[in-house]
């Protein structure tokens, strides 16, 4: 599901009036209610869903971003709203910064997988400086909606085939791990396998014969993770494009490596990414 499918232009406000977190939640509920999908849901029900989730842990994810969200019985689809608080609002965020960019989401409980994917899309979109610049400078909800449509439409096309491949992706720099996991969630790769990617160099210092050389072997040592997943052969280019948006060109040394291999034998059930 694309983020734009959860939005209507009436639910986007380029200049929020709220000055406190409580006021912000109420204003975001008002924006959510402008979506016809919530016509039969009381504002109090929506506000309760957001507050109940907020009690578990702050949805102020850092970098001036807040993503209040919750689940509501009886909804037929995921619904979102976007607001920009140009002055910033104290939110209790993980990094202590006020929140300026807010995306509120509500979803039916049975839509857990799509819900996770849309939340991951939101998180990645709000980490894009070009998009947050759009939020800062936009004077209307339509300008923001148009930018989201432009970003989502620009993704490489996927041509479904009858063939599945096993993709091995080694992430060298662990600093990108959280962002890569968000991306996997966004594209539905929650069934991917993640393994430690240390090579022999990472273990050789434990061999008594080489123990005295531990400082030499560990100096400047890199470690990372290997992701294994199954996906349609026609989606490989799109998947790699998304990875490179996060970590940079894989052809540059030290970025990582991706290898796609044809699957010649399968026994058991495989779960594949479907874009």
Summarize, please.
This protein is of the alpha/beta class.
CATH superfamily of the largest domain: Mannitol-specific EII, Chain A
Q: What Rg do the Cα atoms give?
A: 22 Å
**SS strand fraction:** 15-25%
> What is the tally of helical segments?
8
Poorly predicted segments: none
Account of the 3D structure:
The protein is α/β, with parallel strands linked by helices and 275 residues long. The protein folds into 2 domains: 3-153, Mannitol-specific EII, Chain A, CATH 3.40.930; 164-273, Alpha-Beta Plaits (2-Layer Sandwich). Helix content is 33%, strand content 21%. Strands 1, 2, 3, 4, 5 and 6 form a 6-stranded mixed β-sheet that branches. Strands 7, 8, 9, 10 and 11 form a 5-stranded mixed β-sheet that branches. The longest helix is centred in the middle third of the chain and has 15 residues, at 112-126.
Describe the structure using short key phrases.
275 residues, alpha/beta, Mannitol-specific EII, Chain A, Alpha-Beta Plaits, 2 domains, six-stranded mixed β-sheet, five-stranded mixed β-sheet, 8 helices, 11 strands
């Amino acid at each position: 599901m694309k983020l734009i499918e959860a939005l209507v232009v009436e639910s986007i406000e380029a200049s929020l009036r709220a000055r406190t977190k409580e006021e912000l939640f109420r204003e975001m509920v008002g924006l959510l209610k402008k979506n016809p999908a919530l016509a039969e849901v009381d504002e109090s029900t929506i506000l309760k869903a957001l507050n109940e989730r907020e009690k578990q842990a702050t949805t102020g994810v850092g970098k001036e971003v807040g993503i209040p969200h919750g689940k509501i019985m009886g909804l037929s689809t995921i619904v979102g709203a976007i607001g920009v608080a140009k002055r910033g609002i104290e939110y209790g965020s993980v990094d202590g910064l006020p929140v300026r960019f807010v995306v509120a989401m509500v979803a039916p409980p049975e839509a857990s997988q799509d819900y996770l994917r849309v939340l991951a899309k939101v998180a990645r979109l709000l980490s894009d400086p070009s998009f947050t610049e759009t939020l800062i400078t936009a004077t209307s909800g339509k300008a923001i909606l148009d930018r989201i449509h432009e970003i989502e439409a620009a993704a490489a096309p996927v041509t479904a085939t009858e063939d599945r491949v096993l993709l091995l992706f080694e992430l060298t720099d662990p600093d990108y791990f959280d962002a890569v996991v968000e991306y996997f969630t966004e594209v539905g790769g929650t069934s991917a396998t993640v393994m430690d990617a240390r090579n022999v160099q990472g273990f050789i210092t434990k061999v008594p014969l080489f123990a005295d050389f531990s400082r030499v072997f560990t100096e400047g040592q890199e470690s990372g993770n290997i992701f294994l997943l199954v996906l349609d052969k026609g989606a490989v280019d799109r998947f790699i494009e998304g990875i490179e948006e996060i970590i940079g060109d894989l052809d540059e040394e030290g970025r990582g490596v991706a290898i796609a291999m044809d699957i010649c034998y399968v026994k058991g059930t495989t779960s594949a990414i479907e874009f």
